[in-house]
Each structure stands twice: as structure tokens, then as C-alpha cells.
Specification:
three-stranded antiparallel beta sheet; single chain; alpha+beta; 3 domains; 5 helices; Jelly Rolls
Length: about 280
Amino acid sequence: MSLENNHNEYTDIWDITKGYKPSESKSTDAAWNKIKNEIEKNSSSKKNHSNLSVTYRKWVSIAAAIAMITLGGYFYFLPKTSSNIQTVAIETGKHNGKIISLPDGSEIFLTPNSKISYSYTDQQRKINLVGEARFEVEKNKNVPFTVETANSKVTVLGTGFNVRSFSNENTEVFVNHGKVKVETTAEEVILVKNEFTTANNSTLTSGTKEYSTVHFDDKVYRFENAPIAEVLSVISFQTSKKFSIKSDTDKLFNGTFVYDESAENMAEIIENTTGLKVIIE
């Protein structure tokens, strides 16, 4: 068959299909039937039966064209994926803690008067924290888990750790098990079990201790050989009242406070245990 005849056949195909636009799948059969009728009408006017092989090729080509039209309509009508990332915010009251289960199976215990916000994507698991929380993180080496505070960023793959970041104070990170990286704008450090670091603005100060000196569950704070300054910082944040003493001291405190304990009772317990005078503002 001559090149001219091939050109004429494909010109016919173009003329037949060029007026059709992508549509949803329900209208595809109607479009096909219309094109088929035009093909049959066009074919019946030709008397040369030797063109059967050409007609077959026309049908194959038209079928391909219809497939392209259908696919075009399908992708055109697909719902658009929103680029917005949903952020969930959770806050506790002064007298209650809260266990939070995250979408990946990780868990956070949030202490009283604290708040977090979190967002999850296929590329990251991001937490923002104000207050104090204990984290148990599910491993996923392809999706980093980060905790951001006012002056630091903690990155983990799978571990358990505590973060304390009270308003206008230093951030402290203590590792219960596993490994974490703590960063500021100027420094970074890798911590493993029983190691801690304190972020003061952009400076990190690190060390080790046998255990966390502050423990908490859904009802109580428990202090174990905790420096007085640490105790006063925790209960000041929880109660939204300022606890202080008149002079620096290296005394340690052991004791338990329920979350709804009054500020006055807390101060009295500390005074009876340590002999220090506690001021409440």
C-alpha cells in the first residue's frame, strides 16, 4: 500500500476523533458507538474490498485513541490531593496528665499544664512541645521522629526519653533507652541511655546520671534525689505559681506530690523535708 493511502487513512481517523473531549467513564460507550457508526458509514461507501486490512488497522488505531480519551478523562476527574498538612494540638490542665497515642503507634505521656502539637507525613513525624513529656517512639528509619522546643530539636529513630521545656527556661533531655540526637543552632550531641543534656539558648551541657530524678504518671510527680532547683521548677510550671528559696543550696529532695496538691501543701512538705524556707509568689 502506498504512503499516500496510509496518510489518507490516518487523516480519516483524526477527522473522526478530533472533536471528542475527555469525559467520565459513563459517556465513553456513547462516544465509542458514535465513532463506530461513522466508521461503518464511511466503510460502506468504499467498494474496494482489498482495504479490509487497512480498516482493521483503523479500528485498532481508533481503539487506541478512545483509550487515550478515556484515560485522559479519568485522570482529569481524579480528586486533587491536598498539600495541607493537618496539625493536631493537645493540652493538659493543671491537675491531670494524659497519655497520647500517635498514628504510628508511638506514645507520649504529657504532664500537667503542658501542650504538644504534632503533624505526620510520609517523610516526617514532627512534635512541638511546651512543658514536660515522656516519649516511647516506634522505630521507622525512613521517617524521622523529631521533638522541637523553644531552643532545641531532638531527633530519634526508636527510643524512650524525657523532655522538659518550660517557658523561658532551659530544655533538658534525658534518655531512658536507645539513642537520640539533640541540636541547637550552634551545637549537637548524641545521647544514649542514662545520658542527658541541657540546652541553654544555643549551648548544650551534657552529663550522665543513673536515673531520671523526676518520675510521673497519670496522678503524681515523684522526685528521687532531685535538686531543689529542679523540684521548684517543676511545681512552679505545674501550678502556674512561682516557688523559690532565698539562697542556693545543694540539698536534694525525695517526695511525691499528687497533681491536685495545693501550692501551700507542696511548700510545707519541702520545708519539713529539707529545712528550707519556700516562698510562693
